[in-house]
Amino acid sequence: MLEQASAGILSALLVFLRVAAMVSVLPAFSERMLPMRVRLAAAFAFTLIVAPAIGGAEAPPALPDFARLALSETVIGLALGLGVRLFVMALQTAGAMAAQATSLSQLLGGAAAEPTPALAHVLVIAGLALAMLADLHVHAARLMIGSYDWFPVGIPPDPQPLSAWWVDRVAAMFALSFTLAVPFMIAATLYNLTLGVVNRAMPQLMVAFVGAPVITMGGLVLLLLCAPLMLSVWLDALVGFLVDPLDPAR
Length: 250
Known about the structure:
Elements: H1 2-23, H2 36-54, H3 63-101, H4 118-133, H5 136-150, H6 159-201, H7 207-243
Helix pairs in contact: 1-2, 1-3, 2-5, 3-4, 3-6, 3-7, 4-7, 6-7
């Protein structure tokens, strides 16, 4: 009985290492505004969900083998968690691009824990709230359970495919960021072209003083109109990744 109990504890510890590594960077569950005890409780809660679902993996009794497995499980958890975290970075990047294009980059720039433009901070908070309403915790639990089919316990991930997957994820993140910020980039281009034409036609007019309030108000109105569509596109991409993170099209 003691040997079975020890094997069960080691198996649960391996599950906790993968789950805790993922939860430590998972959006909404790893935010700085949450106390450390809450994040630790979330990791334990996910462990209680995942451990019975995978049926318990056999942990080797030898300490060196267990240490190797512990490192492998931590790397897998961090890789999957950071893959999900990239979607929050996509919102931050899109917000920064939109803020720079519409002269809103310095407005309340220090409102977040990190120095980000207010527009990016609004998009991130709205995206996190929308993700939680769309059952992010359920999708995250499914991802943790499914990860044992893609990365079984005892088989370390191959560095070459993992690095290639990471390059694809970063490229997809920047593509998604630019896609979300396209309306603001188009509006800024049209604004600058119009400002240039007016400046050529009326050199004596201080177009910068006239145009600055216009682009600022236009950026806020554009945010009001485009934010629902932007967040909808972002949420679809996030859910698609959570369903199948190894799909190269995601």
